[in-house]
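2024-03-11 09:14:02 DEBUG pipeline.ingest accepted 1 chain
2024-03-11 09:14:02 DEBUG pipeline.ingest length=297
2024-03-11 09:14:03 DEBUG pipeline.predict start
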Amino acid sequence: MSWTLAITNQKGGVGKTTTAVNLAAALAERGQRVLLIDLDPQGNATVSTGQDKATLERTVADVLLDAVPVAEVICAIDAAGFDLLPAHLELAGAEFQLVTRIGRELKLKQALAPLQAQYDLVLIDCPPALNTLTINALVAANDVLIPVQCEYFALEGLSSLLDTLEQVRLALNPSLGIAGVLRTLFDARNLLAQQVSEQLLSHFGDQVFATPIPRNVRLAEAPSHGLPAMLYDRQSVGALAYEALAEEVLRRMPGAAERPVVPRGLSRAMPSKSGAKSADKSSRKAAPKLKKKKAKK
């Protein structure tokens, strides 16, 4: 039985795709059978794994429209050790067609049902919007992983995301939980980033992952090479952060105590380049307050 995580936040630019690709690679290196689903019409996760969107004959859009079985669309990302269900801009058109279909919110869940025994984890890279695609991801998921950018406007949309999760629980997926909240684009030298981090810890407590993802040049460069950061520059602070995050995710995985310890895979890293990171200037602007609402597990 696989553990399906929807990586979602209605705000764009918070690191959803970066997290999906790099977490998939880090988990695969730790012996996990991982499927990454690109559910964003922009197809950034697909490009970040080295796939050419223009040459794809079939994508997740075909799966959602019942045109082809999911097993015929999945492609292996051999360098990183995980599988990918790719996306293309045509996914936007598929979403429009889904609006008139009965049971449209269940399409992804139904498509993934035959794969439950084939993977340990399924990661869904969601679009930055509350639409039919995102609802499909939330219905198919066991839990959500919420990346939150440690900047001023990050908390403003978080309360509405929690409201959305509650609505999905009530109507479509009663067992949907929160696997964790991930602080992204984090710079410990930035006062505002510290304030946002404190707000998250105050509201979510232990649900906040101990590992923050820092601002890092290598994380930004890796997608242009079609590689996860750990294969582009394993020693970069960004790659190391995602490796630490993978360890946390495995500890939170259902049945983790009963799972055998799997040795980490051999390094598949390319020749290392020197790590570097960029940081914003410190800001004295106070962080916005997050509306207090208990997140249901």
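2024-03-11 09:14:41 DEBUG pipeline.report Residues 3-258 form a domain with the Rossmann fold fold (CATH 3.40.50.300).
2024-03-11 09:14:41 DEBUG pipeline.predict end
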